[in-house]
Amino acid sequence: MLTTRQNSLYNLSLLSERSEKSTLSLKNSPTLSRPWVGTSSSSASKDAEGQKLYHLVKPTEHGPSENQEKMVTEIYLTRLLMMKGTLQKFINDLLEAIFSTSSRSAPLPAAIKYMFDFMDEQALEHGITDAEVVHAWKSNALPLRFWVNLIKNPHFVFDIQKPTKVEGCLSVVAQTLMDACSTQDHQLTKDSPSSKLLFAKDMYQYRDWVDSYYSDIARLPPISDQDMASLLNEESRVHRGQFHVFSALNELYKYLDQYKEPIMDALEHNEHAQASRLPGRLQVMKVFIYI
Description:
Elements: H1 9-27, H2 39-49, H3 66-98, H4 110-125, H5 131-141, H6 143-152, H7 164-181, H8 194-198, H9 203-219, H10 225-238, H11 245-258, H12 260-268, H13 271-275, H14 278-290
Helix pairs in contact: 5-6, 6-7, 7-9
């Protein structure tokens, strides 16, 4: 037989005692006992009474303060300096191998000597006497175009993975090489990028290496046009099966079609081009292409 559940007096008295204890604990709370007021009045009363008001967490935990940022920056720079000291020898060996003609296991590539001599000849032909201009030509042609790209992307040459954590380190090394090729002295301050501050003391040595590299190449025996042509023919023969000739010709044609007028004008005013009858041969080639 089912009957209606009776409320126990014991349970009711127990709940009453718990309620009274909860009320008593809330009354004793140091924060809940204060009446809530607006933001402006709260700040004024806090200053007046000299009390600190917390809401669950301390104000410093809501975001980094100036002291915290300074502490994190100092720790970060200390770790950077330690890592730089660990890798200094390897970075020096890399830059010395790039900007050296005597410490190489193989002789300097003839193409580099031929290209740098060509730039020197062009500077003389056009009356450019500023050495920094020729320096910029050579830097843009080889170190900044080739080596910087290779340092930042080693997977272009080697079958390796490039972790994300390593990208920043490689970018710092590449930036150091770029600064070494520059002829301008940048005034560094405490707000300058850390990548420039790390190698500020070593930059003069690196720039001496770059200047010596260009000077040593200029003193090497010149490469004749016949020797360069033979070298290119040999390279073409060795790598004949690795390249598609018509694709390369198509890319050259796109460049020729875009700058056909300046190219033709330059050929007509160049004595070597006139001797080889290049303007007429270019005209004949354009006729066949358009047909």
